[in-house]
């Protein structure tokens, strides 16, 4: 067996071969083919991020259609059927097309750099994982042009709305979700293989940066729950096209079964969208506090605890379906229990900043906004966990407020923080400071003006997913709609920041931020196409 292995290259030889691939016999394709065929983790990471930004603006336009309709009662800018399609498509595109691909793009770019790997473990699979996504979302968006319109049953696609009463395009929606799910599973396999096999010599698991840890745990979550989603949408497909009755009570099925299956996927999915955010914030706060992260090991264990508990809380979305009392109590307490490891994380971030030499650069501003506002989302989540109270809050705008406080100033702000933090490494230039600050402050004002009033309209009894409402909710909705348009417009500043950053600006050194210690800051800025062809010199004491 040993005789069939190629001779082990010397460091000089390996550098020459890997670095010279482009110039040697393997001439790199140019133009469109370069991007279609690339197996380089940095280029694929960039593709994910560009795709995510595109989907973010498409999903954002759909959200603005919703907010324009709700600007005041009695407007009817769009038909109620189209309004329902907009709420559904906004949710699907933001969750599956914007937030998740953004985190996968950050993982593609940064995980190999942070662990000293030359690339992802499975580069061709990486390319395939990405190119499934444009196919999936082109298919999903095309449903809007089909007879009967696109999906109109909410992003949670509850049966029987999504089966017995669904538009004909639902089969296309199911196929697009299958394709996106395959992409997620393959990407997760790749990330696990990379982290477990390609760490720099001397880097133990407990030496890895927290962004790598959170992504490792997230990838296991994806592999565990994506097949459940695949199963439930396949059962929907059977109900629609083949006469089965999985979710049809008239045929002996049970619509509540759908909710159990969907939320068994859906709640870990929420943590899939927030755990990498924890990792990004755990990299940024120590850097700009110029201190080591407080409680590194407890952060790792808290992340794992959140992931495990996320499988034990799904029915808190279903308190009103008539669960047995013992089930309501169980899910109420497990949901509250998740606040403990989450609280450990918030405590550690605050303790890291305590008596630190803090500088308020754009990444730190977004990270701080994340900590404060994600905590607000956590508190409203605790209110929803209390089952008797949830009977009042369920399916009101209070739930919309809670979910968006977790995902917008939570996941999205962490993505923006990560982008500002790593842009110098990607482009070789610092982001424009004044524009970045304007982007931050307008985003914070826009987010809170949009979603904070929703708590009150929900507590006052306004149901979600309605195209019109009673007069007593008018003021709250006016504020929310104004905030939404402000927030949407402010994201154009982010695009301007990126364009200016790519085209030029203040040059960034290899170590772009004074307190940054992880391995990615040991390579030049911008990062060359091939990095760590020879394993880097890793010193554990630098990390934690």
Automatic annotation (TrEMBL):
NCBIfam families xref list: CtaD_CoxA (TIGR02891)
GO molecular function annotations of the record: cytochrome-c oxidase activity; heme binding; metal ion binding
EC number(s) per entry: 7.1.1.9
PANTHER family xref list: CYTOCHROME C OXIDASE SUBUNIT 1
Protein name: Cytochrome c oxidase subunit 1
Transmembrane segments: 47-68, 88-109, 130-150, 170-198, 210-238, 270-288, 300-323, 329-351, 363-386, 398-423, 435-456, 476-499
Catalysed reaction equations from the record: 4 Fe(II)-[cytochrome c] + O2 + 8 H(+)(in) = 4 Fe(III)-[cytochrome c] + 2 H2O + 4 H(+)(out)
Domain of life: Bacteria
Associated pathway: Energy metabolism; oxidative phosphorylation
Organism annotation: Halomonas ventosae
């Amino acid at each position: 067996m040993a005789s069939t292995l190629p001779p082990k290259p010397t460091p000089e030889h390996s550098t020459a071969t890997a670095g010279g691939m482009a110039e040697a016999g393997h001439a790199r394709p140019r133009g469109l083919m370069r991007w279609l065929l690339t197996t380089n983790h940095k280029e694929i990471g960039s593709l994910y991020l560009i795709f995510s930004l595109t989907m973010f603006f498409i999903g954002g336009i759909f959200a603005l259609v919703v907010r324009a309709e709700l600007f005041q009662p009695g407007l009817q800018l769009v038909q109620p059927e189209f309004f329902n399609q907009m709420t559904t498509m906004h949710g699907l595109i933001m969750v599956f097309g914007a937030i998740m691909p953004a985190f996968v793009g950050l993982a593609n770019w940064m995980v190999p750099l942070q662990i000293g790997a030359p690339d992802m473990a499975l580069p061709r699979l990486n390319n395939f994982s990405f190119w499934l996504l444009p196919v999936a979302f082109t298919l999903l968006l095309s449903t809007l042009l089909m007879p009967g319109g696109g999906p109109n049953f909410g992003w949670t696609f509850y049966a029987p709305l999504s089966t017995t009463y669904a538009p004909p395009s639902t089969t296309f929606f199911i196929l697009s979700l299958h394709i996106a799910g395959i992409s997620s599973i393959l990407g997760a396999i790749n990330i696990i293989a990379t982290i477990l096999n390609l760490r720099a010599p001397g880097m133990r698991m407990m030496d890895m940066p927290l962004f790598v840890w959170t992504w490792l745990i997230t990838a296991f979550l994806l592999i565990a729950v994506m097949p459940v989603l695949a199963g439930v949408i396949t059962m929907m497909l059977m109900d629609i096209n083949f006469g089965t009755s999985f979710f049809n009570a008239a045929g002996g099925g049970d619509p509540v079964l759908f909710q159990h299956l969907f939320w068994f996927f859906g709640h870990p999915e929420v943590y899939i969208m927030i755990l990498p955010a924890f990792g990004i914030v755990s990299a940024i706060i120590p850097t700009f506090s110029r201190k080591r992260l407080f409680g590194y090991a407890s952060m790792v264990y808290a992340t794992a605890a959140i992931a495990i508990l996320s499988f034990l809380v799904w029915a808190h979305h279903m308190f009103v379906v008539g669960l047995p009392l013992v089930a309501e109590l169980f899910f109420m307490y497990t949901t509250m229990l998740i606040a403990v490891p989450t609280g450990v994380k918030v405590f550690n971030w605050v303790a890291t900043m305590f008596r630190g030499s803090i500088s308020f650069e754009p990444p730190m501003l977004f990270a701080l906004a994340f900590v404060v506002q994600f905590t607000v989302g956590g508190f409203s989540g605790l209110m929803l966990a209390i089952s008797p109270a949830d009977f009042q809050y369920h399916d009101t705008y209070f739930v919309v407020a809670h979910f968006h406080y977790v995902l917008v100033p939570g996941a999205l702000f962490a993505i923006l923080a990560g982008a500002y933090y790593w842009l110098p490494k990607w482009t070789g230039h610092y982001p424009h400071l004044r524009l970045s600050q304007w982007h931050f402050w307008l985003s914070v004002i826009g987010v809170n003006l949009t979603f904070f009033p929703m708590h009150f309209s929900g507590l006052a009894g306004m149901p979600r997913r309605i195209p019109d409402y009673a007069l007593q909710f008018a003021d709250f909705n006016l504020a929310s709609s104004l905030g939404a348009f402000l927030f949407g417009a402010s994201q154009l500043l982010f695009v301007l920041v990126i364009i200016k950053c790519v085209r030029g600006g203040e040059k960034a050194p290899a170590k772009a931020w004074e307190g940054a210690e992880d391995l990615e800051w040991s390579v030049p800025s911008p990062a060359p196409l091939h990095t760590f062809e020879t394993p880097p010199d890793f010193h554990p004491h630098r990390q934690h």
